[in-house]
Design brief:
Layout: E1 6-11, H1 15-23, H2 26-34, H3 40-59, E2 66-71, E3 84-89, H4 92-99, E4 106-110, H5 129-138, E5 143-146, E6 149-153, E7 158-161, E8 164-168, E9 175-184, E10 191-196, E11 199-202, H6 210-217, E12 231-236, E13 251-255, E14 258-264, E15 268-273, E16 281-284, E17 288-293, E18 298-301
Parallel strand pairs: 1-2, 1-3, 3-4, 4-18
Antiparallel strand pairs: 5-18, 6-7, 6-17, 8-11, 8-15, 9-10, 9-14, 11-12, 12-13, 14-17, 15-16
Helix pairs in contact: 1-2
């Protein structure tokens, strides 16, 4: 007997809930905010808006479906199943945080506060949930397959991200490494010893955020990919020229089959995706990591 589909509702703790957890009572939280020129009323109103969106989204899940609810901080410990339909209620960044833990499950992005964010990944209201879930299991769903980036180390560690992967020193201090690009199959590209504040490799989805700021800073010489394009862009941040380190390989693009190769020459570097530093790959001296297009894509229901 096959299992009924499961709707996994992903959300994030609101600022109001975090304030109460830290300060104990609304009065204490209000006093803390007032000392910084803010009002608890605005925070509480946003909390209530998010609560209504979560309730409305949950109400759209069919009664015969199984369901689960996951807070952002629990994602790395939650086991998604192949029959799941993932419903993310929150900002665009929450979809990106969720994507790295999926293996092709369809995703619905629900915006609890329309107009506050860009709405690139959360394109629906809570009232659309029932129709979207029905289409997801009927085969009629229209999905955008968004490219993802992955980092693979020489000892088999793997990390995926929807927006970008940052590789550098903890605390964003000086990272030392050898950078080789591009690598297609077994053909190595040119290599350079570098000292910088890190390397960023990202997708067309990530080109609306952190990567875009670097792209603008560099004058837009490298064309930005679209979210569904099988192409990545990469930048070296603040490469330092010296007799021992170079700055000739500082930006470029990666297509299918190409890999950016980085060999660590620091005691410790980390690689993390989409801003989640708590879930990072730890890299030691002499280790090599390769970054390129991931085999998996995010299936976003539109």
């Amino acid at each position: 007997m096959s299992l009924a589909p499961r709707a996994v509702l992903v959300h994030r703790t609101t600022e109001y809930e975090e304030l109460l957890a830290r300060h104990g009572t609304p009065g204490q939280a209000g006093f803390f905010l007032s000392s910084r020129g803010r009002s608890l009323d605005e925070v509480a109103e946003r909390h209530e808006t998010n609560r209504r969106a979560l309730a409305g989204t949950a109400a759209g899940i069919p009664l015969n479906w199984r369901r689960a609810r996951v807070e952002r901080g629990q994602l790395d410990r939650f086991l998604f199943g192949p029959e799941d339909v993932v419903v993310v209620v929150g900002a665009d960044g929450l979809v990106a945080n969720t994507a790295k833990y999926l293996t092709g499950q369809p995703v619905v992005g629900v915006d609890p506060e329309p107009g506050r964010g860009l709405g690139v990944l959360v394109r629906h209201g809570s009232g659309d949930t029932a129709a979207l879930l029905a289409s997801a299991v009927s085969g009629r769903a229209v999905c955008e397959e968004l490219s993802m980036v992955e980092a693979v180390t020489d000892d088999g560690q793997r990390l995926c991200a929807l927006n970008e992967i940052y590789l550098g020193a903890p605390g964003h201090q000086t990272a030392r490494y050898r950078l080789g690009t591009p690598e297609r199959g077994r053909e190595p590209g040119p290599e350079e010893v570098q000292a910088s504040s890190g390397v960023l490799v990202g997708t067309g989805t990530g080109a609306t955020g952190w990567l875009r700021s670097l792209w603008r800073e560099r004058g837009g010489a490298t064309a930005l990919p679209a979210p569904t394009d099988p192409r990545l862009i990469w930048y070296v941040r603040e490469a330092w020229p010296s007799p021992a380190t170079g700055t000739s390989l500082v930006e470029g693009a990666l297509t299918h089959g190409e890999r950016l190769r980085l060999t660590v020459e620091s005691d410790r570097l980390v690689a993390f995706g989409d801003g989640i530093e708590s879930d990072a790959l730890e890299l030691g001296w002499g280790q090599t990591v390769r970054l390129g297009l991931a085999g998996l894509k995010l299936r976003l229901l539109v």
